[in-house]
Design brief:
Elements (H helix, E strand, L loop, with lengths): L1 H11 L1 H7 L3 E3 L7 E4 L7 E10 L7 E10 L7 E10 L7 E10 L7 E10 L9 E10 L7 E10 L2 E2 L3 E4 L2 E4 L4 E2 L3 E5 L4 E2 L4 E2 L2 E5 L10 H40 L1 H23 L5 H35 L8 H15 L4 H13 L3
Parallel strand pairs: 1-3, 2-3, 3-4, 4-5, 5-6, 6-7, 7-8, 8-9, 9-11, 9-12, 10-13, 11-14, 12-15, 13-16, 14-17
Helix pairs in contact: 1-3, 2-6, 3-4, 3-5, 3-6, 4-5, 4-7, 5-6, 5-7, 6-7
Length: 365
């Protein structure tokens, strides 16, 4: 769990850095929600959409999130990608931090590689110049690694040259015929590792886990990926809401800031009284359909209030940082708000109370 949380922290802590940097943002330009960047001149690039394809080289950092993400241009510094399906086909000069359902990397990563996902394939054409940290279900590591390797997963297959130490926790570990591991190998699993003919590996320090613990082998990785994907989904929704309803969003947030007690009172009525009314309607014969419609509306309203709470928190944070007299709204404040609210969810009691209060404040429509 500690390694999984380390992976999550490494990914999440990057977002405030992104928010503070200057760069270009690209949103979907059509109803399909797709983003296609085939050419251009970019220092830092941040883009989100239903599907994202970046074919242009980026001199600085690249942040890309979507249902399907394809990186077809070289990245001059760090890559940050999240989505359902992710393909990296061009070199990354800095670190690569990636989270998604299925992930394929076929180009070099010059520094560290951090991945959380379901199915992960790092091809032999994708050598890693630093360390590798991976959490996932099915993991194939065919590339050469100059640093250390740490993996938590279901089935792990290694078939490359690794210079540093290897630490793996999995249900099954196999070293392929092309694998060459010079560093120490520490393996936790229900059965010994399989070393295929032709493999060159050092002594394996194997610790057998009891079979009843098998189900939790890669639960931390799934938990990590789930939190991160939820964070990206909320970020995407927040950015799109602000893009199309920016003036309304700013008005609602400003009202909550200037009239907090009034907003809190109205929100309390919405969060507490309204659901009780729906439950009463559900047990009556004639109010059933009204209750169903009202219940669906309440779910949508709560999702929107969660987004509004993140926007308010981000604007408030930037107000404090800039020592301004009014709330400060920008794309970067939106990112900061989503990250702060996501972090609050991980703090027992205090964080949860802060989020509940924010939700009540914005449940006013």
């Amino acid at each position: 769990m500690r390694k999984a949380l380390f992976l999550l922290a490494g990914i999440v802590l990057l977002v405030p850095v992104v928010a503070a940097a200057a760069g270009q943002i690209v949103f979907p330009g059509n109803e399909s929600g797709s983003v296609v960047i085939s050419q251009g001149d970019y220092d830092d690039l941040y883009t989100v959409g239903g599907s994202v394809s970046v074919g242009s080289d980026v001199r600085g950092d690249l942040f890309a999130a979507g249902g399907e993400v394809t990186i077809g241009g070289a990245v001059g510094q760090d890559l940050f990608a999240a989505g359902g399906h992710i393909n990296v086909t061009k070199a990354v000069t800095g670190d690569a931090r990636i989270a998604g359902g299925s992930i394929s990397i076929t180009a070099p990563v010059n520094e560290d590689l951090l991945i959380a996902g379901g199915t992960i394939i790092v091809a032999g054409s994708a050598p890693v110049g630093g360390d590798v940290r991976v959490g996932g279900g099915s993991i194939v590591l065919n590339s050469d690694v100059k640093g250390s390797v740490s993996i938590q997963g279901g089935e792990v297959y290694i078939n490359g040259m690794i210079a540093g130490p290897v630490n793996i926790t999995s249900e099954k570990l196999t070293f392929g015929p092309q694998s060459n591991v010079a560093g120490t190998i520490t393996y936790f699993g229900p059965r010994p590792a399989v070393v295929e003919s032709g493999a060159t590996v050092s002594d394996i320090h194997f610790t057998m886990r009891e079979l009843h613990k098998k189900k939790g082998t890669y639960a931390p990785a799934i938990f990590t990926a789930g939190l991160f994907i939820a964070l990206i989904a909320k970020l995407l929704a927040t950015l799109l809401l602000y893009k199309f309803f920016g003036r309304t969003v700013e008005t609602v947030a400003t009202t909550a800031y200037t009239k907090p007690w009034q907003s809190l009172g109205l929100g309390f009525v919405g969060v507490i009284v309204f659901p009780v009314s729906v439950l009463i309607l559900l047990i009556t014969v004639f109010g059933f359909y009204i209750a169903m419609i009202a219940g669906l509306w309440f779910v949508v309203a709560m999702l929107l209030t969660g987004i509004m709470a993140a926007i308010f928190v981000g604007a408030l944070v930037f107000k404090w940082i800039q020592r301004a007299t009014e709330l400060q709204f920008s794309w970067w404040s939106l990112v900061a708000g989503v990250v702060v609210c996501g972090a609050l969810k991980l703090i027992p009691v205090v964080g949860w109370l802060a989020l509940v209060t924010a939700l009540i404040v914005f449940n006013i429509d």
